[in-house]
Amino acid sequence: MNDYVQYTAQAGALDPQAVDELQAMAQGAGHEVPDLLALRDGMGWPARDIHTRRMTIRNQIIDGHVNVRIYRCDEDKSPTPAILFLHGGGFFGGSLDNVEYPCRALADLGALTVVSVDYALAPERPYPAALLDCYAALRWLHLHADECGVDPQRIVVAGDSAGGNLSLVTALLDVTLGTYYLSRVVGYYPATTLVPDAELIDTARYPATEDKTLIDGYLNGFYASMGQVAQWYAGKTDCRHPFISPLYADPALLAALPPVLLCCGEFDPLRLQVDAFANQARRAGVDVTSVRYCGMVHAFMDKVGVLVQAEALLRDTVAFIRGEPWVQR
Questions:
Q1: How far is it, in rounded angstroms, from Cα 35 to Cα 235?
Q2: Number of structural domains found in the chain
Q3: By C-alpha distance, which of 121, 158, 112, 111 is closest to 138?
Q4: What DSSP character marks residue 13?
Q5: Catalytic residue list
Q6: Which residues form the signal peptide (predicted)?
Q7: Residue 169 covered by a domain
Q8: Angle CA(127)–CA(292)–CA(245) in degrees, nearest 5?
Q9: Is residue 37 part of a domain?
Q10: Deepest in the core among 42, 79, 86, 209, taking most CB within 10 A?
Q11: Cα 129 from Cα 290, distance rounded (Å)
């Protein structure tokens, strides 16, 4: 499964709900730079709980400081596949609560055990704190697979945006250390590089049949914030480090990765760098499946129960994990 799965919805145009979102963002944009607490408080999107089966949700602390939240449907028989889920939020925000409904949906739709990780946030705790928290959670899940009712051979890491970056680099750390805990890797519109690159922020590479001015304003606004995010997260470390920017990983290291699923919206500001990483990983011999969701912008997974594409993405994830056939939409 190395080719793009292009959804049959009309390409080149924003989804109507995405138009509303971008117009609201444009109207609310100001010249002042919000402070860190305001940015964190503003995170999260409208979503609905779509899970239908009885589920047990519990919190646990790993290694004395890493909080995780575990989701599992009561009727699912052990052992199940497991997803280590890493939330988005630009490395400086986001929380377990922000991805509560997607995690419930994944556990329900896929008969999976989901372990959501509350990793360290920058700038108070810059790189490598978040990565180490994520790997600690992965190691704990593998070592405690039996008591969690999890198949240790079917542990997957998944995450969105900054969490997608952490999914990729947790997988790179896993193979670097030779632990090979992961069977698959999932990135929802992951940040694959924090290094400025004009080719990867070229709005001309986003062809649109309508709303081009609105789309370009959205893309450029996102790109303008990336320098601050990189400064907060990387701290004193060079952003070219492959555990910060996996696009810079050596091909020999990439080649050791398990199968990878990359999901991205058509008008996501990170789409070009996601595509660049996918192509680089493929050249290294990685089994990469890329799915592009027409009309979507960044962070659409969060809107589960509101956007049909969000549920489609979660169902695609389940199909990838379980090796089931793809459904063309």
A1: 18
A2: 1
A3: 158
A4: S
A5: 161, 268, 298
A6: none
A7: yes
A8: 20
A9: no
A10: 86
A11: 29
Looking at the domain assignment, is residue 40 inside a domain? no
Structure tokens at 27: 């109207």
- Per residue of the chain (329 residues), give pLDDT as tens: 444 444 446 789 999 999 999 999 998 766 566 789 999 999 988 899 999 999 999 999 999 999 999 999 999 999 999 999 999 999 999 999 999 999 999 999 999 999 999 999 999 999 999 999 999 999 999 999 999 999 999 999 999 999 999 999 999 999 999 999 999 999 999 999 999 999 999 999 999 999 999 999 999 999 999 999 999 999 999 999 999 999 999 999 999 999 999 999 999 999 999 999 999 999 999 999 999 999 999 999 999 999 999 999 999 999 999 998 766 55
Residue pair 291/261 in contact (Cβ under 8 Å)? The answer is yes
**Cα 109 to Cα 15, 52, 214, distances in angstroms:** 25, 9, 35
Contact 151, 80 (CB under 8 A): yes
Only one residue has tokens 């947790």, namely 170
Note the pLDDT of residue 325.
77
CATH number, position 252: 3.40.50.1820
Q: Is 303 in a helix, a strand, or coil?
A: helix
Phi-psi region of 122 (alpha: psi -120 to 50; beta: other; left: phi over 0): beta
Residue 122 domain-assigned (yes or no) = yes
Residue 27 main-chain phi, psi, to 5 deg: -70, -30
Return the sign of the alpha-carbon dihedral for residues 117, 320, 112, 153: negative
Q: Residue 105 in contact with residue 182, Cβ under 8 Å?
A: no
Least Cα distance to 319 among 258, 261, 257, 256 occurs for: 261
Alpha-carbon distance 57 to 30, whole Å?
40
DSSP H helical ranges for the chain: 16-28, 36-41, 100-110, 129-143, 145-148, 162-176, 212-234, 251-254, 271-283, 308-322
Nearest by Cα to 312 from 279, 265, 276, 275: 265
